[in-house]
Amino acid sequence: MGRLACLLAALLIAPAARAGFTVETLAPGVIAFVRTEPAGMMFDANNLAVIGEDAVLVVDSNATGESSREVIRALRRITPKPVRYLVNTHWHLDHFEGNAAWREAYPGLEIVGHEATRQELAGIGARNRAGMLEFGPGMVEALRKRVAGGRDRGGRPLDAETKAAYASDADQAGRYLEATRSVLFLPPTIEVRDRLTIRLGARTVEVIHPGPGHTRADLVVWLPAERIVATGDLVALPVPLIGNTARPLEYPATLERVLGLQALVYLPGHGPVIRDDAPVRRVLALVKAIRDGVKASVAAGETLEETRRRVDLAAFRESFAGTSRWRGTLFDMYVVQPALEAAWRQAHEAS
Ligand SMILES: [Zn+2]
User: Fold this and answer.
1) 271 CA distance to ligand 1 centroid (A)?
2) 61 & 193 share domain
3) In this structure, is the dihedral angle defined by the CA atoms of residues 276, 277, 282 and 287, taken in order, positive or negative?
4) Do 204 and 318 have their domain in common?
5) 63 alpha carbon to ligand 1 midpoint, in Å?
6) Residue 70 belongs to a domain with what CATH number?
7) 214 and 305, same domain (yes or no)
8) Domain enclosing residue 308, as ranges
9) Of 58, 72, 97, 211, which one is least surrounded by beta carbons within 10 A?
10) Ligand 1 centroid vs 126 CA: distance in angstroms?
11) Pair (266, 286) in one structural domain
């Protein structure tokens, strides 16, 4: 703990500039808070506020209470109505750790989450968090050194995009580490298995579990009258976040159910508002390629290494990352490395 405290003290001396979020009205009374930090290893989550007749529903909290309090201040400038429901699209901490700040601001708040949330938080969630606390300070220190020296881990000069992302990651990770040691985790008070309808006066909100995908406990929030859907991390840009807690074999069917809603507007878990379904279909094509390639490989009795060689995701890497070296790195980090392994393990579980 002493070492961590020293590192954190060092971080406090050199805070990076805050990026924050933009506020976008998607329909009357439907407001998106869209994060503006560069895509990186650390993300904060987008939020959605749905303003009803006498109360508000919010989708997702944030990586820290501090981030949530900034969104709460912005929301209070828009409406004096209290937030009655906070829906967590999944239990990943960047969508969840700010729950206590929302409850503090709105004491009557109900927290809506998938019924597997408590179990996931206590298991893989606790392990991930312990890993972050153990390795996070070293990561922050390394990133700050790379930014200061202008060189990446391999000694190559940093391009501007990578440098900005490293600086943002170090800043966010530093604040996260500082906050997470004392955070109060507030699990759902209302649990959803398949579907829940919430009426905010005349406005209808559907909370739907479309199936496992980004995690086994994903929820989407659907506004049928406005045809707006908040997808959580089932959809994220500029690169998909599939990750090691994904269920890649079920992901395509789950995403097809989301596409079946025929939304006009998608608010992804991270990245800008999407106003046509083309980016969602690109994610679908990617997860189908992973599912089908890994299934074929496992059916042929191949090892994980053989599967990695067989399932070639280079075209998808180029489609999501373009010529950006940094986005290519993120694609490898969030898709190629974890998703193939998660799919391979899942295929063995099923057989
Ligand atoms: Zn996530």
Assistant:
1) 13
2) yes
3) positive
4) no
5) 11
6) 3.60.15.10
7) no
8) 281-350
9) 211
10) 15
11) no
Which distant-in-sequence residues (6+ apart) come within 8 Å of 32 by Cβ?
23, 24, 25, 26, 46, 47, 48, 267, 273
pLDDT in tens, the chain (351 residues): 344 444 443 333 333 345 599 999 999 999 999 999 888 888 899 999 999 999 999 999 999 999 999 999 999 999 999 999 999 999 998 999 999 999 999 999 999 999 999 999 889 888 888 888 898 899 889 889 998 999 888 888 988 888 888 888 888 888 888 887 778 889 999 999 999 999 999 999 999 999 999 999 999 999 999 999 999 999 999 999 998 899 999 999 999 999 999 999 999 999 999 999 999 999 999 999 999 999 999 999 999 999 999 999 999 999 999 999 999 999 999 999 999 999 999 999 866
How many A from CA of 155 to the centre of ligand 1? 31
Q: How far is the CA of 94 from the centre of ligand 1 (A)?
A: 7
Q: Is 17 part of any domain?
A: yes
Beta bridge partners of 229: 222, 266
Q: How far is the CA of 257 from the centre of ligand 1 (A)?
A: 19
* Unique residue bearing structure tokens 């929302």: 102
CA dihedral (121, 125, 130, 131) in degrees, to 10, reads 180
Å from CA of 254 to ligand 1 middle: 15
Which residue matches tokens 């969508």? 95
Rounded to the nearest whole angstrom, what is the distance from the C-alpha of residue 302 to the centroid of ligand 1?
A: 29
Reported in sequence order, the residue ranges of the chain that DSSP labels E, i.e. its strands, are 21-27, 30-35, 47-51, 56-59, 83-87, 110-114, 190-192, 195-200, 203-208, 220-223, 228-236, 265-270
Whether residue 5 is contained in a domain is answered as no
How many angstroms is it from 244 CA to the middle of ligand 1? 10
Distance of alpha carbon 249 from alpha carbon 213, whole angstroms: 8
Q: Give the chain's domain count.
A: 2
CA 125 – ligand 1 centroid, Å: 11
Residue 270 C-alpha to ligand 1 middle, in angstroms? 9
**How many angstroms separate the CA atoms of 209 and 113, rounded?**
10
Beta partners for residue 343, in sequence order: none
Omega into 238 within 30° of 0, i.e. cis? yes
Residues 283 and 242: their CA atoms lie apart, in Å, by 10
